[in-house]
Write a structure and sequence with these properties.
249 residues; mainly alpha; 0% strand; elongated
C-alpha cells in the first residue's frame, strides 16, 4: 500500500477506529511508518465532511464550484450575481447538512470549500481550515465603477456636519472594532484549546492501546510461567520417584 492509499483508508473509516488502525498500518508498512504516525485524527465535523465527500461527491463538488463562481462574481463587482450565488450556496449547504449533523459541520464545509477545496473533495480534512470562508461579505453593498464625467459639475455646497452624530458614529465604530478584536481572540483561543484537546485525546487513546497490548503480553507471560511451573513440578515428582526406585534396588 502506498501513502495515499493509507490516507484514504484511514480518513474513510469510522472515526473511533482511527488511532488503532493508524498504529496497525504503521507496523504493517515500516517504510511509511513515520508519515502514517503523523496523521491526525479528524474532528467529528471534519470526519462527517469526509464521509459526505465520499458518499455525496457530486453535491460537495457543486458546493466547491459555487465558491469559485462567487469569487469570480466578486472580482467582477457583479452584485446581482453574488446575491444569486449566495442563495445557491445556502441551498447547497441545506442539502448537505441535516439536523443530526455535528456542530460546526456547516461552517467547516463553507470554509473548506474555499480555503481547502482539494482536501474537501478528497475527503481528507482533519479540522476546519484556517481562513475566512468565502473571503468577502455578501451583505455589504458592492462598489460600482465611477462613470466618466463629460464636463466638470458645478460644486455643491458642503452639507453641515452633525457633530453629535459624528461622535456617536465614532463610538459605535470603536465598539465594533473592540468586539471584532475580542471575537478574533476568542476564536484563536478556541482553536488552540481544540488543538490541545485533540493532541491529548490522541495521546490517551494511544496509551490505552499500548496498555491493552501490554496487558495481553503480561497475561501471555503469566500463562507461560504457570505452564513452566507445572512442568517443573512434574519433572520433580518424576525425579523423586526415580530416586525412590533406586534406593529399593
Amino acid at each position: 500500500m502506498d501513502f495515499d492509499g493509507a490516507v484514504d483508508l484511514l480518513y474513510g473509516m469510522p472515526r473511533d477506529q482511527f488511532i488503532a488502525e493508524r498504529d496497525k498500518l504503521a507496523k504493517a508498512e515500516p517504510t511509511l511508518a513515520d508519515r502514517i504516525r503523523k496523521l491526525r485524527k479528524p474532528t467529528v465535523a471534519a470526519w462527517e465532511a469526509n464521509q459526505l465527500a465520499r458518499k455525496r461527491a457530486e453535491d460537495v463538488g457543486a458546493l466547491v464550484k459555487i465558491g469559485e463562481d462567487l469569487r469570480a462574481a466578486q472580482q467582477a463587482l457583479d452584485g446581482q450575481e453574488l446575491r444569486r450565488l449566495s442563495r445557491r450556496r445556502a441551498e447547497a449547504l441545506d442539502e448537505l447538512v441535516d439536523g443530526d449533523a455535528a456542530a460546526g459541520l456547516r461552517e467547516l464545509l463553507e470554509t473548506a470549500a474555499v480555503d481547502a477545496p482539494d482536501d474537501l473533495l478528497a475527503g481528507r480534512l482533519v479540522t476546519a481550515p484556517e481562513g475566512g470562508g468565502w473571503g468577502f461579505d455578501l451583505s455589504a453593498p458592492m462598489p460600482t465603477p465611477k462613470p466618466k464625467r463629460a464636463s466638470k459639475p458645478e460644486p455643491k455646497p458642503e452639507p453641515k456636519r452633525d457633530l453629535k452624530r459624528d461622535e456617536a458614529r465614532k463610538k459605535a465604530q470603536a465598539a465594533v472594532d473592540e468586539a471584532t478584536a475580542a471575537e478574533a481572540e476568542a476564536h484563536r483561543a478556541l482553536s488552540e484549546a481544540e488543538d490541545g484537546l485533540r493532541m491529548w485525546t490522541e495521546r490517551v487513546e494511544l496509551l490505552q492501546t499500548e496498555l491493552a497490548e501490554a496487558r495481553g503480553d503480561r497475561d501471555a507471560v503469566a500463562e507461560d510461567v504457570k505452564q513452566a511451573k507445572r512442568e517443573a513440578e512434574r519433572r520433580g515428582k518424576a525425579l523423586r520417584d526415580a530416586e525412590l526406585r533406586l534406593k529399593r534396588l
